[in-house]
Task: inverse folding
């Protein structure tokens, strides 16, 4: 056993840990990153990246079929093998060696072990103990939560990991949970050929978003042929003979060749040695807006439970690195109001408050809604598809946008305008001078602002 | 001859005039619109809308061919007849009757005549004289400029009107002018089957944009097979036998079945009766930032020469209407810095200053460039296509973005984020907290801001 010293030790090399380590290395500190699995983490290999690689070809083919002149060129179907092969390329066949040079260029030492806290400023990594002169940053992320439903664990369900890396479309896929993972995987595998049953206990899908978003996604999934079971709980699971049966509280059953559990996430803090520094495991690690637990311990990304989104984890990684480098940095909006995109078709892109969350937060707000596709630019995009809805939630006391949601075909890159308006606190009065170009679909902003005048 | 009174008379029912009239009508004023040709104007029938309908199917088909899994479904080619037929649908076969109810609902009287000023607050329209109690708004737009090149006018060249409404792709098309109309039409008709020669006298295309934008568009057009003649002047044109020959100063010739002149625009003020109110015709009508010439005369859209863009004309229409309605309204950035999109592939989307224009304006600026496609989201869009460039021009004294340009595949809806940042004067420091969602291509912002730190 040897002891080695670094300025900073980062435990976990997902997006948050990587970004933090890189920024610290660029800032001149000596950094060790401890990661037993893949550099790049859940997002690169088992979540954001493979899921989008499964979704995008189908979305694009649906779009080309809507556009006269182009659709006539399409005679075939989605090539499922090619989609899966491109997915494998995107996740580098689960090989992360391509990331090693990026760390090495920044002088970052990679320790391929499981990291555990071992008292103040100490991290045990296999046989070694790493000692941090300045800080330890925990970035161990989350794993799929498997809820205590009778027979569920024994059925060895898919989590996001198997759902995003499966080598073939299962004939029948049952999905437990209609949150982001559930709806994206329902869309992806349905389009890739599976019969999909989606079970959601709440009365709507993607329940943290505006109600219309969940309704529009439900309608689209239904149209694709997904068997929707909304507002009904799973009571038991039975597996056997290569088949899994989910019993529902309404007395119905859902049968699948595979079962995906997509109920939520739990922080990876059970076996992290938190007790050696006087903290409890089993839940998120609470931090302040500097990502600090105390004067030497930081937690970034999913593991701090503030918001489970790759881009916000990377943002927190930058904040923590800046704080450790001695800057006065604080995170803003790294919570349920963070910008977020769901890559179904229609897509759902939102930032800031929903109307409900704003009211619950005690804000004096009103909403204005327009059809996302209700403008000249939409003549060329997403034609004949559901119109989608664009909503601004306006803080009437401050004259600012408190939140925005866009649903519709390929609205993902609409979002950043709203993000800048919300985070930049651009007054509504000034937004009227930010003119969207004709004929782009960004003219949705024009109609939203006109709606606010009415 | 009869005299009729209205609160406001709008001369010209293009986008600017329409929007202005509609807003005045909504504001409770009595309004007459005088238009001898089409309600909706050049943009709806002969410019923005038909050009995009010609471009979009080819762009989309190019994109689907880049994406594994989807591209295998494509075995055919662009269906030119279907593209042209959809174009005809977009321009309603040059029938504007669909717009009449929109005016009627707002109580706006449509006078289908050519309108001419006839002294203070008076407009002659056919046999009638219309008298304005409050204001006359001129919105007569521009027409294609035909430069005094020997033989050009006699050759009866296409302007944007014929180029956007042609019933078939000419076998050989020669285009004079590598501005926005020239490059868009070169791309459109090349993809639709024409042999295209593009002649530009300056040393680069779309010369008002960043140099890299023109270079990338030139490269893409070359790859499509457009015969590029850049930095060479046309000296004479000869037409005969169904063929047109353009003589070039380098001694070469360009031969076509059709010749499109896309050199620029001239304001429609020649036959407007400006002399009856003490003004000169033949050029733009100068206005202040309230769109006012004097206490009763306003000019909006192309005709005032401030910026020739539909969305800015509509914006000016809103400003003028608000001023006439008694509000304190002023236009901002309605000049060369206005947001603008060129719908080639790569697209060019820009707002605010270019690096050159900022320097010429005496600003202390620096630029940061990153590849538009240099992010995870680009794995799913525009793959294998030219990377494109994203540039921020930063005003170092003020800590603000003075301009932004994005080139690349389908970047049109990236622009509005930059427009809000520029017009909203969001400090760079605050922009670092406006986090783009992963994995969207909007992460280009992340790399731009990181580049600024370096």
Result:
């Amino acid at each position: 056993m040897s002891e080695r010293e670094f300025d900073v030790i980062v435990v976990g090399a997902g997006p948050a840990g990587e970004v933090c380590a890189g920024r610290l290395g660029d800032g001149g500190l000596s950094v060790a990153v401890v990661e037993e699995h893949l550099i790049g983490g859940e997002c690169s290999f088992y979540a954001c990246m493979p899921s989008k690689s499964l979704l995008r070809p189908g979305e694009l083919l649906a779009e080309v079929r809507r556009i006269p002149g182009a659709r006539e060129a399409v005679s075939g179907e989605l090539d499922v093998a090619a989609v899966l092969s491109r997915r494998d390329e995107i996740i580098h066949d689960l090989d992360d060696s391509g990331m090693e040079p990026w760390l090495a260029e920044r002088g970052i030492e990679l320790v391929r072990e499981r990291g555990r806290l071992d008292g103040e400023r100490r991290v045990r990594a296999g046989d070694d103990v790493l000692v941090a002169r300045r800080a330890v940053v925990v970035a161990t992320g989350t794993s799929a939560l498997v809820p205590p439903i009778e027979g569920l664990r024994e059925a060895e369900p898919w989590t996001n990991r198997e759902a995003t890396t499966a080598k073939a479309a299962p004939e029948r896929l049952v999905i437990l949970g209609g949150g982001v993972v559930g709806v994206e995987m329902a869309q992806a595998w349905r389009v890739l050929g599976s019969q999909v049953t989606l079970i959601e206990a709440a009365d709507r899908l993607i329940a943290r978003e505006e109600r219309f978003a969940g309704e529009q996604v439900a309608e689209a999934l239904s149209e694709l042929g997904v068997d929707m079971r909304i507002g009904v709980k799973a009571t038991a699971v039975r597996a056997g003979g290569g088949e899994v049966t989910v019993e529902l509280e309404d007395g119905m059953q859902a049968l699948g060749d595979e079962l995906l559990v997509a109920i939520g996430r739990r922080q990876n803090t059970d076996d992290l040695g938190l007790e050696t520094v006087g903290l409890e495991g089993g839940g998120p690690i609470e931090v302040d807006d500097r990502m600090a637990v105390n004067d030497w311990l930081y937690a970034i990304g999913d593991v701090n439970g503030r918001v489970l989104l790759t881009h916000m984890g990377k943002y927190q990684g930058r904040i923590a690195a800046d704080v450790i480098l001695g800057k006065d940095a604080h995170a803003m909006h790294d919570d349920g109001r963070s910008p977020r995109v769901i890559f179904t078709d229609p897509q759902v892109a939102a930032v800031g408050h929903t109307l409900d969350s704003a009211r619950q937060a005690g804000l004096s707000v009103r909403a204005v809604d327009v059809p996302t596709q209700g403008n000249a630019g939409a003549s060329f995009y997403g034609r004949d598809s559901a119109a989608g809805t664009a909503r601004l939630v306006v803080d009437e006391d401050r004259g600012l946008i408190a939140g925005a949601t866009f649903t519709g075909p390929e609205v993902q890159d609409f979002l950043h305008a709203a993000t800048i308006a919300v985070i930049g606190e651009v007054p509504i009065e000034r937004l009227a001078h930010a003119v969207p170009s004709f004929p782009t679909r960004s003219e949705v902003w024009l109609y939203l602002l006109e709606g606010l005048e009415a």
